[in-house]
Request: fold
Amino acid sequence: MDLFKIYIGESGTLHFEIAWWIILLLVIGVVVLSLLQKRLRQWRKPYFEIDEAEIGIGNQKIKIRPNLEDLQIAFKFWAELSTRKIGIPIDEENDVIVEIYNSWYQFFGITRELIKTIPVTKLRREESTKQIVDISVRLLNTEIRPHLTRWQAQFRRWWEQAINEPENMSLSPQDLQRKYPEYESLMADMMDVNRKLIAYTSTLRRMVYD
Reply:
């Protein structure tokens, strides 16, 4: 049986014919590929649990089932957290508080920009996406923002004065910041926020890589 044939008709026109079963196979192939692509788009990891208490934003354990787009969003948040001082342990002996605050402030702006890139239609359609974004925003507003509101302005004001005082000129930044009158309270609060940010960073990493 000819799979296809080309011939010139009586009127001189060129004709091209394909066996009907080849056309059927092509149609079936297109349908199968379409279904596979749809399945890949809808592919989801198993349910993933997020403990709100661990990251300081509530007392629930949320189960989400992220799709590939959600994992990409989680990866972007994780990449920003894990490559800044915000998502890795603070080294009290060597880190400088003003540099930590600079990193936290930059993360605020970057997070806002990342959220803006997520289509509104996706936020409304995908509950998992909404939860990932909601947790990130709540973490900013319930942990980082309160600490910055309480401590950052007054510490920076003290710091700008202290670094210009003659008796402090020979001190390292680490030694100088320990002279801050409320250093122990500030550092304890900062360490608590840092612990929760590290927990969230770890959560995002497990969501993306496990």
The CA atoms of residues 154 and 160 lie 10 Å apart. The chain has two domains: 4-41, 48-209.
